[in-house]
From TrEMBL:
PANTHER family: KETIMINE REDUCTASE MU-CRYSTALLIN. This is Ornithine cyclodeaminase. Transmembrane segments: none annotated. Belongs to the ornithine cyclodeaminase/mu-crystallin family. InterPro entries: NAD(P)-bd_dom_sf, ODC_Mu_crystall, ODC_N. It comes from the Bacteria. It holds the Pfam family OCD_Mu_crystall.
């Protein structure tokens, strides 16, 4: 007796790196960023439905490996992601990731995807979505401090969602800034390479800090931040890693995704446990105020949260039927008789077991 053919349930849609790049170019980068931002916003509006917990992290002296799970009661999702700042010395990515969605009713996976690219998209989409609520209306200039792999995605998302047209760039590695200048030279931005963080923030209504070093750092000091500025602080994402002097936090209204995680990993790890923050889901649903006036300093202490990855995967899954840009991966053992897994293996070997 021959082995049964895999059922439809055995096959899981898989989005490879190659197909993710095809999707981005097919749909358009701007359209994907705004689409993902819409899904993130929608999921923030139903925040109370989600299982929420700080990510499960395994730290070493060279980096971190993390799992980020959540569920809305119907669909379960998780992301595997690492952060190894020294990888670039060896020609490797600082961050790599993959993710999965599953049907809560059966436990069967319904999507497996690369998430190195998708994480860059969802991080940029989240940053710009938050700035839509917190930054000064009419802001057109952003300082981008830290010009690594995330930079161009941040810039594109802020242009699409917030109307940013002028970028002031700084990185301790001038080659990183030159890379951004090349990549964005034909994208309609007014680009300025700067020689210091202080120079970069001149005239900027929005400041994005996105550095990779796993250490307590002071990218911005208190005297550098003027009234009305919105700070998009997304580089801090693990214990012992920050970018801002704590005096800035004392002057600003600080907004976060999920306080129990941000107090461990974000800028506010420098502050007392009762330091006041506002959760972004409250702002988006109207339960709390975002920007109140033109002089207020707003600060998004963004560390990345599982619901945002869930939103990005949910968006991705919804694109697959119309684009067909995925592979069907024979991933789930699904015998004709669910109690006879052993027999399925025997038949596959010609009953020779």
């Amino acid at each position: 007796m021959s082995a049964p053919m895999p059922s439809k349930l055995a096959y899981v849609p898989f989005v490879s790196v190659a197909n993710m790049m095809r999707l981005i170019n097919h749909i358009g980068l701007t359209e994907m960023l705004t689409g993902i931002a819409t899904y993130i916003e929608d999921d923030f509006r139903r925040w109370e439905l989600f299982d929420k917990a700080p990510r499960v992290a395994s730290h070493s002296d060279v980096g971190v490996i993390e799992l980020m799970p959540t569920s809305d009661g119907q669909v379960y999702g998780f992301k595997y992601v690492n952060g190894h700042p020294q990888n670039t010395v060896e020609g490797l990515q600082t961050v790599t990731a993959f993710g999965l969605l599953a049907n809560v009713q059966t436990g069967y996976p319904v999507l497996l995807s690369e998430m190195t690219l998708l994480t860059a998209l969802r991080t940029a989409a989240t940053s710009a979505l938050v700035a839509k609520y917190l930054a000064l209306a009419g802001a057109d200039t952003m300082a981008l401090i830290g010009n690594g792999a995330q930079s161009e995605f941040q810039a594109t998302a802020f242009r699409a969602i917030c109307g940013i047209t002028k970028l002031r760039l700084y990185d301790i590695d001038p080659a990183a800034t030159q890379k951004v200048l090349r990549n964005l030279s034909d994208q309609g931005f007014e680009l300025t390479a700067c020689s210091s963080a202080q120079e970069a923030i001149e005239g900027a209504q929005i400041i994005t800090t996105c550095t990779a070093d796993k250490q307590y750092a002071t990218i911005l000091t208190d005297n550098m931040v003027g009234a009305g500025v919105h700070i998009n602080a997304i580089g801090g994402d693990c214990p012992g890693k920050t970018e801002l002097h704590k005096d800035i936090l004392s002057r600003a209204d600080v907004f976060v995704e999920y306080p129990p995680q941000t107090r461990i990993e974000g800028e506010i790890q420098q502050m007392p446990a009762d330091f006041r923050v506002t959760e972004m889901w409250e702002v988006i649903t109207g339960k709390a105020k975002g920007r109140r006036d033109e002089r207020q300093i707003t600060l998004f202490d963004g560390v990345g949260f599982a619901t945002e990855d869930f939103s990005a995967l949910r968006y991705l899954r919804d694109q697959l039927e119309t684009t067909g840009l995925y592979d069907a991966l024979d991933m789930i053992a699904d015998p004709d008789d669910p109690r006879d897994l052993f027999g399925m293996v025997r038949r596959a070997g010609g009953e020779s077991m």
